[in-house]
Design a protein that fits this description.
By secondary structure, the chain is α/β, with parallel strands linked by helices. It has 16 helices and 14 strands. A hairpin with a 5-residue loop joins strand 2 and strand 3. It starts with a helix and ends in an 8-residue tail after the last helix.
Length: 531
């Protein structure tokens, strides 16, 4: 049986916390057929993950109500047209979790409706998918060998949920601020120069980065591309100037330095082609977005783990690999209720549904990695993205941000308690399996040319649909504006703002983002050596 003394001792040795947050995949979709078994983190008894092995679950297609469609494997490593991006906005998730007739708030309880996970196929059909049953497909272990290997070698959390039942942006804000500031869907369009537009998203109690700064604890964000989502947060422009953002290609070299100064490290993947010529094309990134190749994200996970494992930092490190939300893919575990963060709404225009934030979102994979964690550890306790913040606060003696991370510290089995070994393991693998071969390749995969350096021409109205700017694109458009607005001299900012507010449709948005990406690349300083 593990002892509290050992847990405290191991937690005290952690000097570096690394976080890699990927995109849009549910737990069942990624690990539902991995067949993981091991030791219960809380009791020390043998246990197995709550998955789909010998545990059949199904949905019904509204167009074929007499047929049960089970969750099965294998899934496709990449979705191809005419398949579409599964919906994962607030209303999509409401249907997925609560069925086709659900509404929020529930007419009877005035809260989130009862959850039965019955509407995943119905939701994907409503997104105009020609094959809605694909939303029930899951990967086999040999399709995601990197994630599966880490789950077997360290701790897998099989009740880790997105922080709210909705899309990427609010869920990513929760991992930075224990709140979304009231954002309950993808960001709104901007028709006027709001404070959110010009300064980025702010939070009543600020962010984990502010807490770290107040204690003089150093942090850094590694960027997979020039538009990291965290840049949408207020004051991140100044942080960029202060050298708090580094290109990911510097990661391995920097962590190999025994004097690596950063205690908290957040790693943003490349989000791929967020300048699509066809609707929703996020290909050639490493985020594991629904329309991209999963193997590319597996390569990123492998690169991050192996760099830390082979570094002098390993014996004092904790790495969390998780996903922002489920991306519309099926999961059979009903997410539980929770407490509201208790803070104020930052921008009322971004609170689309008057959501009270007392309901967690769909379950996502989460692997906690450290030499102080025994192989085969399984954590059944309830976690969400604020559980990470609670662990960071415990390790570095920080105050909580909102009622969410405060509750996690008081109620849940804290992540730091997974560090149950008194001394670091020496048998943790130094290398992981190679990702599966998907057959999908991008220009530049085998040479030094990167997508950001590709001087592609502007998008014409014959190449792209000139319709409205889709919700998933609005957030990246805002990040592009913030980068542009802060890059130009102050005398030019009024013109930049005016031109941005004149963007009216999708083609305008795509061309603006291409233009900003070009000037970012041209203004990019030469890489600095690691410290």
């Amino acid at each position: 049986m593990r002892t509290i003394a050992k847990k405290k001792q191991a937690s005290a040795t952690i000097k570096h916390i690394f976080v890699l947050m990927l995109e849009n995949r549910s737990f069942d979709h990624m690990l539902g057929f991995a067949g993981l078994s091991g030791t219960d983190a809380a009791t020390g008894e043998p246990t197995r993950v709550n998955d789909l092995v010998g545990n059949s679950h199904f949905n019904v297609d509204p167009k074929d109500p007499g047929t049960q469609v089970p969750a099965t494997w294998p899934a496709e490593l990449k979705m191809y047209s005419p398949d579409v991006d599964p919906g994962h906005e607030f209303d999509n998730v409401l249907m997925q979790l609560c069925g086709t007739s659900a509404c929020y708030p529930d007419l009877g309880t005035k809260k989130y409706p009862p959850i039965n996970s019955s509407g995943f196929i119905a939701s994907y059909r409503k997104s105009n998918s020609p094959s809605p049953a694909k939303i029930m497909k899951c990967f086999s272990p040999d399709q995601v060998p990197v994630l599966t290997a880490l789950a077997r070698e360290f701790a897998v959390c099989d009740h880790w949920f997105a922080s709210m039942p909705g899309p990427t942006w609010p869920n990513r804000f929760f991992v930075h601020a224990a709140s979304s500031g009231g954002l309950d869907d993808s960001p709104s369009s901007f028709e006027e120069a709001t404070a959110t537009l010009l300064d980025g998203y702010s939070f009543q109690n600020r962010t984990i980065y502010d807490r770290l700064d107040a204690k003089g604890i150093q942090w850094v964000v590694f960027m997979g591309d020039e538009l990291p989502q965290v840049f949408a947060i207020h004051r991140m422009t100044e942080a960029r100037i202060e050298d708090r953002f580094r290109e990911f290609d510097q990661f391995a070299e920097m962590v190999s330095d025994p004097n690596f100064p950063y205690s908290y490290v957040f790693i943003e993947p490349s989000y791929g082609n967020v300048l699509p010529l066809t609707p929703g094309d996020y290909t050639c990134g490493s985020s594991q977005h629904c329309l991209d190749d999963v193997a590319r994200g597996e390569k990123l996970i492998k690169t991050v783990y192996e760099a830390i494992r082979k570094s002098p930092l390993w014996n004092n490190s904790l790495l969390l690999v998780t996903y922002d939300e489920h991306g519309g893919f099926y999961d059979h575990i009903p997410p539980p209720a929770t407490v509201s963060p208790g803070d104020k709404i930052s921008d009322a225009k971004n609170n689309h549904h008057n959501f009270d934030f007392t309901q967690l979102g769909v379950r996502v994979p989460a692997i906690v990695i450290s030499p102080f964690i025994p192989a085969g550890t399984i954590d059944h306790s309830t976690h969400e993205h604020c559980s990470l913040l609670a662990a960071v606060e415990n390790v570095f003696n920080l105050d909580p941000l909102t009622d969410r991370d405060r509750r996690d510290r008081e109620v849940n089995y804290n992540l730091a308690q997974l560090l149950s070994l008194g001394t670091p393991r020496t048998d943790a693998p130094t290398s992981l399996p190679n990702p599966a071969e998907s057959g999908f390749h991008c220009e530049g995969d085998d040479d030094s040319k990167t997508k950001a350096d590709d001087p592609s021409p502007p998008v014409s109205r014959g190449e792209a649909h000139p319709g409205p700017i889709e919700p998933s694109l609005r957030g990246w458009l805002h990040v592009a504006f913030l980068r542009h607005y802060r890059l130009v001299p102050e005398a030019e900012r009024e013109s930049v703002k005016k031109n941005f507010l004149n963007i009216r449709d999708r083609v305008d948005a795509l061309n603006y983002m291409k233009y900003v990406n070009k000037i970012i690349v041209e203004s990019r300083p030469k890489p600095k050596p690691g410290r």
